Amino acid sequence: MSDTTFDYYARRKHDHDHDDHAPVAGQDSGPASEYEIMSRAMQELLEAKGVVTADEIRRRMEIFEEDFPYRGSRVIARAWTDSAFKARLLADGKAACAEMGVELEATRLIAVENTPDVHNVIVCTLCSCYPRELLGMPPTWYKSDNYRARVVREPRSVLKEFGTVLPDHVTLRVHDSNADMRYVVVPMRPRETKGWSEDRLAEILTRDTLVGVTVPRVPA
Amino acid sequence: MTSGRRARARRKLPSTYTPAPIHRFKVGDRVMIKRAFPPGHRRTPHYIRGKVGVIERICGAFPNPEELAYGFDGDPAKVLYRVRFQQKHVWPDYRGPALDVIEMEIFEHWLLPATGRALAAKLTQTG
Amino acid sequence: MSDTPVNKGPHDLGGAAAGPIDTTDHGMKFWEKQANALRNTLSRKEIVRVDELRRAAEDLGDQYYKLAYFERTTMALRTLLLEKGFITEAELKAKMAEVRARSDAPGAATGGKGSGR
């Protein structure tokens, strides 16, 4: 029997503060690699041939940067505050997002819900399928060979590397998004967030909580 | 369609799912993934081939990615299912709880009914 | 039949032995964001399909393991653009030389700000 007052997600003592809002700062430093050159060359050739325009590319870059990454938190925050919406999201993710004006384009979304007894985590072992129109671009660890190889086979060890410890009575569902569906996790809402606005809730629904490697943290 | 889906269709909201009026398997059916190893682009991971699971949901019918990958149109569409497997069955060395599962999408042509005879044959195989 | 996997592509990684995960998100460099936008634009216009891009990456064989994510996807796009006749090898070689000359020029920027791999 599950205990809803227990903090299921014990954190390892020395876990680093896994801030997934901010990719590690770096620079495009040094000479361009062969692949960067190749990619730019292909783009310029296609632009010269009228296959794509520089404007189209620029607009997509903007959408990926400024729009997509912020949608997932809003959708899940709505699900946390509106149980009827949550039910519709779990029944048909694409339709529920469209209801909110979040057009997922090609993505067919399945939302999976964490409960006191069940935790969900997402992967694409074959490449790096990810609900990009809902969450933006996947983090580098999601695309890494080691994550793809290990999270299907030893998911609890992998979650520990992210600082998430699941008790044995919590069943773990791993979802390998290997075909046409894409997935988002609906985390459990911490009790301490009672009365919070959707905006405030969205802030703790970080990208990593929506992939399932961490759970929402209420700042002390 | 469920009444929910009918309502959404009326409002012309896009759906995650597509219709699959003809489907070989239903939710709850036990299925075995074919032990087949064809060359070329497949969306059935090696680690699940030959394994037995349960149909979790029907996703709809979609163009066959094995054909799309080579420039063909993928018609006729193939029914896509979500299948759930016990981790302890998929990985003999799995150390987590018995209830842990792994779920993925499998196209109909990769599925066989996991009847008693098919299961017995599977269980007598080594490895 | 032997126990060695038959027709298993380099991408079919589920269950493979692997080491610890670098759990830091290193984000994307500018050129990677641009490459992503290019690929996304091409697939939305159905000029290349995502399935074709996946297949071309899978066909990289052992080279797959030596390449980082955006290097794989760049090679895959190269394969498809040549295959479909959008570009020729000679054109690509010439354009790459031109782009490299520009990027090596003193004071040239490689693009906008971005984060490490």
Q: Which segments of chain B are poorly predicted (pLDDT under 50) over 5 or more consecutive residues?
A: none
Q: Which spans of chain A have pLDDT < 50 for at least 5 consecutive residues?
A: 1-19
Shape of chain B: globular
Binned, the helix content of chain B reads 10-25%
Radius of gyration of chain B: 16 Å
Could you spell the SSE succession of chain B in H and E letters? Answer: HEEHEHEEH
Structure, described:
- The complex is a heterotrimer of chains A (220), B (127) and C (117).
- Chain A is of the alpha/beta class and 220 residues long.
- In chain A, 40% of the residues lie in helices and 11% in strands.
- Chain A has two domains: 32 residues, no CATH class; 142 residues, Nitrile hydratase alpha /Thiocyanate hydrolase gamma (Nitrile Hydratase, Chain A).
- In chain A, the strands form two sheets. Chain A has a two-stranded parallel sheet with strand order 1-4. A two-stranded parallel sheet of chain A has the order 2-3.
- The N terminus of chain A is likely disordered.
- In chain C, helix 2 packs across helix 4.
- The longest helix of chain C has 16 residues.
- Chain C starts with 29 loop residues before the first helix and ends in a 13-residue tail after the last helix.
- Classes of the chains: A alpha/beta (220), B alpha+beta (127), C mainly alpha (117).
- At the A-C interface, helix 1, helix 2, helix 7 and helix 8 of A face helix 1, helix 4 and helix 5 of C.
- Strand 3 of chain A pairs parallel with strand 4 of chain B.
Observed structural traits:
A: 220 residues, alpha/beta, Nitrile Hydratase, Chain A, two-stranded parallel ribbon, C: 117 residues, mainly alpha, 5 helices, 0% strand
Short description:
The complex is a heterotrimer of chains A (220), B (127) and C (117). Chain A is of the alpha/beta class and 220 residues long. Helix content of chain A is 40%, strand content 11%.
What's the layout of helices and strands?
The complex is a heterotrimer of chains A (220), B (127) and C (117).
Chain A: H1 34-48, H2 54-66, H3 71-81, H4 83-91, H5 93-99, E1 108-113, E2 118-123, H6 132-135, H7 140-143, H8 145-150, H9 155-161, E3 171-176, E4 181-186, H10 198-204, H11 207-211
Parallel strand pairs in A: 1-4, 2-3
Helix pairs in contact in A: 3-4, 3-10, 4-5
Chain B: H1 3-10, E1 30-33, E2 52-62, H2 65-68, E3 78-86, H3 87-90, E4 101-107, E5 111-113, H4 116-124
Antiparallel strand pairs in B: 1-2, 1-5, 2-3, 3-4
Chain C: H1 30-44, H2 50-58, H3 63-66, H4 69-83, H5 89-104
